[in-house]
Amino acid sequence: MMLFRRRFLSLAGGAAAALTATSRIGLAQVPQSGPKLTQLLKADLQGQGEKVQETVVNILEMGPGVAAPWHMHPGAQELIFVLDGNLVAEIEGQRAKEVKAGEVMLIPAEVAHLVRNDDANAMARALVTHSRADKEKAFLVVLKRPS
Q1: In the predicted model, what is the mean pLDDT of residues 14-39?
Q2: CB burial class (10 A; 0-12, 13-18, 19+) of residue 94?
Q3: How distant, in Å, are the alpha carbons of 23, 36, 47, 92, 146 from that of 70?
Q4: Per-residue pLDDT tens digits for 30-44
Q5: Domains plus CATH for the chain?
Q6: Phi and psi angles of residue 107, each rounded to the nearest 5 degrees, phi first
Q7: How crowded is residue 117: how many other Cβ atoms within 10 Å of its Cβ?
């Protein structure tokens, strides 16, 4: 029994030394600079009962002078992050807002809105995310221009 215990302690000591050396090697291989995470927006869900069943992420590309029709997303909050160019967002009851590359806009669920590219020469691109409370509802409902 004593021989077994000595052998175990000898092996355990060797394993600890090897583990320490391996840890140093592993730490030495970790890059000193990691990824950078920049928060663009943090907001509570709006107009959808604060629940999400589905998230949809799209790239929106709008040519010069192009506009989406007035529409709304039933039970879906919309987040627009402009990648290239500038977009103008019109939200019912608010004045139009220009959203430039690198900026973000949040449109609450169930709110009539449109987005357009007023630039006559440049294309605009945006990352658009919809947080949907009920994926069984229509994704988009086209509306007549609000009065």
Answers
A1: 53
A2: exposed
A3: 59, 37, 18, 9, 8
A4: 456 765 657 666 766
A5: 54-142 (2.60.120.10)
A6: -120, 120
A7: 23
* Tens of pLDDT, residues 53-64: 888 889 999 999
C-alpha dist (Å) from residue 9 to 1, 13, 14, 23, 133:
12, 6, 9, 21, 59
- Alpha-carbon distance of 145 to 48, in angstroms, equals 23
- Is the CB of residue 69 less than 8 Å from the CB of residue 142? yes
Question: Phi/psi of residue 70, each to 5°?
Answer: -60, 135
φ, ψ for residue 41, nearest 5 deg: -160, 140
72 Cβ contact partners less than 8 Å away, ≥ 6 residues apart:
110, 111, 112, 113, 140, 141, 143
User: Which residues neighbour 146 within 8 Å (Cβ) at sequence distance 6 or greater?
Assistant: 70, 92, 112
The answer to whether 74 and 107 are in contact (CB under 8 A) is no
Please give the structure tokens belonging to residue 116.
């357009």
Nearest to 112 by CA among 88, 86, 147, 138: 147
Range with lowest mean pLDDT among 56-60, 95-99, 116-120: 56-60
pTM attached to this predicted model: 0.69
